Amino acid sequence: MRIAAARVIVTCPGRNFVTLKVVTDEGVTGVGDATLNGRELAVAAYLREHVVPALIGRDPARIEDTWQYLYKGAYWRRGPVTMTAVAAVDTALWDIKGKVAGLPVYQLLGGRSREGVTVYAHANAATTADVLAEVGRQVERGYRAVRVQTGVPGLATTYGVSAGGRTYEPADAAVPSEATWSTRRYLAHVPSVFRRVREEFGPELMLLHDVHHRLTPIEAARLGRALEPYDLTWMEDPVPAELPEGFRLIRQHTTTPIAVGEVFNSVWDCRQLITEQLIDYVRTTVVHAGGITHLRRIFDLASLYHVRSGSHGATDLSPVCLAAALHVDLSIPNFGLQEHMPHTAETDAVFPHGYRFADGYLHPSEEPGLGVDLDEELAARYPYRAASLPVNRLEDGTLHSW
Ligand code: CS2
Ligand code: MG
What we know:
Blueprint: E1 3-11, E2 17-24, E3 29-33, H1 40-55, H2 63-72, H3 80-101, H4 105-108, E4 117-125, H5 128-140, E5 145-150, E6 178-181, H6 183-201, E7 206-210, H7 217-227, E8 234-236, H8 246-253, E9 258-260, H9 267-275, E10 281-282, H10 291-304, E11 308-309, H11 319-331, E12 338-339, H12 345-350, E13 356-358, E14 361-363, H13 376-379, E15 391-394, E16 399-400
Parallel strand pairs: 4-5, 4-12, 5-7, 6-15, 7-8, 8-9, 9-10, 10-11
Antiparallel strand pairs: 1-2, 2-3, 4-14, 13-14, 15-16
Helix pairs in contact: 1-3, 2-3, 3-10, 5-6, 6-7, 7-8, 9-10
Bound molecules: D-mannonic acid (CS2) and magnesium ion (MG).
Magnesium ion is lined by residues 210, 212, 236-237, 262.
């Protein structure tokens, strides 16, 4: 069997997605997610110009060799664009391998290690009353874990909370929109929201919160300590993660667990955080961290240091990524949680898939391969629409992490 063609499909069923479809000379196809929110065309060009020509004629069964070829052969190693492109190829080749073997991919990864993949839902709302209602809705749907994001009094917008109850989509304008941020207002408000959620829903429900890279280490230490009475499963991205040593300061002051990694694209980004046990969950994903092959390397390293997985799963990662993530989540020994933002019906129609939600778990498809595909005819009806992530400024205009 040889790779005969590889198509890069950009589609926008409500938001942009990039998908690589690899076609073999025996007609077996495989798909890989190549979506990088706000940088979709960069990855599409990288694939079309620098990867696809080198794939034609290769043996699709040689997944590891192809991964090394695309990683070491790039010379300019790592980075979100490169590693998302590598991820798409890797994921598509695992899909093909599963189809050829007649097995769902998790069976090729060592088989099932649990009954289902515990997922967490989002409860995002501007006011505490609406947050409580949203948490209630997710609990009724069967979720055992809920991430809580709240508006902040005095701020027009904040991360995670959309206007008018629409599904949250941060890439909201071709040229980045601008948001205003106040750490003081945020730190003064968030603990009170979690106090009310715990009062309302009791101690069992797993609660999470995404700080979204916005604090300094000592501010994150303060927040972590203030949240300790509410027993969070994790405080996510408390600080920008370029400075791993900064997490030592947070660790000195609080036992609130920390989750980091959705912006990481290789094991080198998270090595120190893992080996110094500065985090409790690593949130790297199939689509942005080099595919199934590299993600397993990251999770294997993490398993040596009591660090569990907590993969990113926002709606700007396609159903192809989610389908692949579930095969990894089901099989690794140190699974923690999987983020689950359900895609819209429009998106699900473009990406027919076999995974399903039941009783707080997602279950991957039992079909051979990943159990997801791309309907190219339907995808063609949704042309790309330029969209960028916002930027954040403090109240005095200083540019801040978004
Ligand atoms: C967030 C994401 O889901 C999360 O944890 O951090 O929504 C993130 O903001 C987006 O994926 C960025 O495109
Ligand atoms: Mg996040």
